[in-house]
Design goal:
The protein is of the alpha+beta class. Helices cover 30% and strands 27% of the residues.
Length: 373
């Protein structure tokens, strides 16, 4: 099919290749091109509000020194992390997502009844089923919303943002919530010094809304690019707990329900793919990294972010790094970084911002935004 689209570029789609040229988007599948008229026009969308939440309890490097064979110096040199926020027992991902979501909805001048779609990017759902989106919908009182969980690990927020934006752009909904939230402390082995120092808990939510012609201007969500590479799956995973290896005495005793990581493989892939997908997305629009006002990468490791930024020739003042305060909160890192940048005046209305992520799977994502709030 062909749908009207207000941007240029191309992106993969199951069953075919999407090619956006000027005002026309063509999906070529099995050699055929079908066409849809103006009724299929996509609306401009934007981030209408942004809010985050982290639990009050802080786990410092000094605390970890008492738990495993590590040191503040070792952690700082290898990761850039000083502290991370950790939930108390009984606090779940939906609880963090609720706090961020309600704050974002209020900031947008809306009520929960205005939300029609909830997309939750999470690696740590409260339960396998029901979905965390269902639980968030109930907890915030969004009586008119439907939704779903999206599993893309550390790319959870960029994927959720894209999914929510496209649903609003299609005309199906006026306002949607895109959430990145994780309680990583629930799947971290605090006997494994290689992984327990990395992760924290947190949530971020944005309201994605349609822009009418009078308010659109140049702002809004411009474009996205995503890809996956399943060959990298074993490099970062939780080996048990799914249908392949259900919970058993063997899997529990083997500590297989915790995150396992091949750090070097993940590091090399993340640096290379962050640069590749960012350049690809920018090139679609005749842009280079020098055109960006701000680069907001997933906060997995300070060295990954700095290495990717160096490859993109981005100066430090255009790169947001806040991993020191939160650690890797997986789905929440990008909204937390955006919120911090906005609070300290680095992120302003009209700024051209590039969001980028690499996560387990492997998943890769980038979203280009002209900031509107």
């Amino acid at each position: 099919m062909v749908r009207k689209a207000g941007r240029t570029g191309e992106a993969g789609r199951a069953g075919g290749v999407v090619r956006r040229v000027g005002e026309v988007e063509q999906v070529e599948a099995a050699g055929e091109v079908n066409r849809v008229g103006k009724a299929g026009a996509l609306r401009r969308t934007h981030i209408a509000a942004l809010a985050t939440y982290v639990p009050p309890r802080v786990l410092t490097n000094a605390d970890l020194e008492k738990m495993v064979d590590t040191s503040d110096e070792w952690i700082l040199q290898r990761t850039g992390i000083r502290e991370r926020h950790i939930v108390d027992r009984g606090v779940a991902t939906s609880d963090l997502a609720k706090e961020a979501s309600l704050a974002a909805i209020a900031q947008a001048g809306l009520t929960p009844d205005d939300i029609e779609l909830i997309v939750v990017g999470t690696t740590t759902p409260d339960t396998i089923f029901p979905s965390t989106a269902c639980l968030v919908q109930h907890k915030i009182g969004a009586s008119r919303a439907w939704g779903f969980d999206l599993g893309a690990a550390c790319s959870g927020f960029t994927y959720a943002l894209t999914a929510a934006s496209q649903m609003v752009a299609s005309g199906a909904h006026r306002h949607a919530l895109a959430i990145g939230a994780d309680v990583m402390s629930s799947i971290i082995d605090y006997q494994d010094r290689a992984t327990c120092v990395l992760f924290g808990d947190g949530a971020g939510a944005v309201v994605v809304s349609a822009l009418d012609g009078r308010s659109a201007g140049d702002v809004g969500i411009i474009d996205f690019a995503h890809e996956i590479d399943g060959s990298g799956g074993p490099a970062l995973c939780m080996p048990a707990g799914g249908s392949l290896r259900p919970a058993s005495r063997e899997t529990v005793e083997g500590r297989l329900h915790y995150v396992k990581q091949d750090g070097q493989t993940v590091f090399k892939f993340a640096v290379r793919k962050t640069e590749e997908i960012c350049r690809r997305l920018l090139a679609r629009h005749g842009l280079t990294p020098s055109d960006l006002n701000l680069f907001v990468s997933h906060q997995a490791n300070r060295r990954i972010i700095e290495s990717a930024a160096a490859r993109l020739d981005l100066p430090a003042d255009r790169v947001v790094i806040n991993i020191e305060r939160y650690g890797n909160t997986t789905g929440a890192t990008i909204p937390l970084a955006l919120n911090d940048a906005r609070a300290d005046g680095r992120l302003k209305q009209g700024d051209l911002v590039l969001l980028a992520s690499v996560g387990a799977g492997f998943t890769v994502g980038a979203v280009l935004v002209r900031w509107s709030i």
